[in-house]
Amino acid sequence: MKYNSTLCEALLESHEIKPTANRILVLRTLAEARQPLSLSELECEMLSVDRSSVFRVLTLFREHHLVHVLEDGSDSVRYELCHSTDGHEHDDDQHVHFYCEQCQQTFCITDVPIPTVSLPDGYVLESVNYMAKGLCPRCALRKEKGR
Amino acid sequence: MKYNSTLCEALLESHEIKPTANRILVLRTLAEARQPLSLSELECEMLSVDRSSVFRVLTLFREHHLVHVLEDGSDSVRYELCHSTDGHEHDDDQHVHFYCEQCQQTFCITDVPIPTVSLPDGYVLESVNYMAKGLCPRCALRKEKGR
DNA sequence: CAACCTTTGCAACCCAGTTGCACGAAATCC
DNA sequence: GGATTTCGTGCAACTGGGTTGCAAAGGTTG
To answer: Nearest to residue B50, comparing CAs of B60, B59, B40?
Structure first.
């Protein structure tokens, strides 16, 4: 999906975030990435913006349920746009992610929803992080044929 | 389960790890904890052992499939004993974990196995991290009744 | 016992994430 | 419209988990 500035502004405002230049930029970068990005990756993608600003924008987005974080074990969390259709509070598109232990990339398996489990009494569920790990198709193939 | 030194030594040797004082200590601490522990928690639990030594022991254990790591998003990974019955390579007891966003503890839901998903062609699955998040029973209760 | 390898503690380092502060821009108030 | 407050940002410094280099301690082997 192509995100122009106007679209980004609208999205920000629908989440009650005042659209500033930095915020639009971060949102666009996230939206156009096919994979969840880490703070450092975002930083590299937008050299004009300071690391701490990116961080603060992300924190803001998180509070307003515009992005969610996921831990892939590469000891830097990654950020991904929420694609909830109702726009708020709960994500309805929580899907499985795959972390390649070879190339260290994290892939969205968008068409596989996270299977739910029934927890023991008392637990109040908010969200689920489902991270499958192993080899991505490319690395698996490369490994198979010698290297 | 109660772990005495002899039992620990046997377990270490069955994983082809030479039993040293530190290793036995780390193993016992992990075994007797009802919850996965972080590096820092382990360190506090065993003040006599240096941080880096604990780290190296854990790394060794990981390589020998004696422990596995899990990411709960509290930006420090936690370590948990593998309870595989065959003792090697693949865990057969991978279960769901629950991270309480209030008290920041991670609970093992040992009787709930991780549901499997079918990945697109090409992906080679090694392991899965299933982390449910929300409020643990105690925090949920406390929140419900005012505070 | 001497030569060797392994394990350990200490200190230093790395790096992601985070915070304090001060400046500049934007919104608000006479 | 200008003064005042609030908000957003960049810079620099800090934090804390994780990691590594090195040298001393301990154990092993001939």
So the answer is: B40
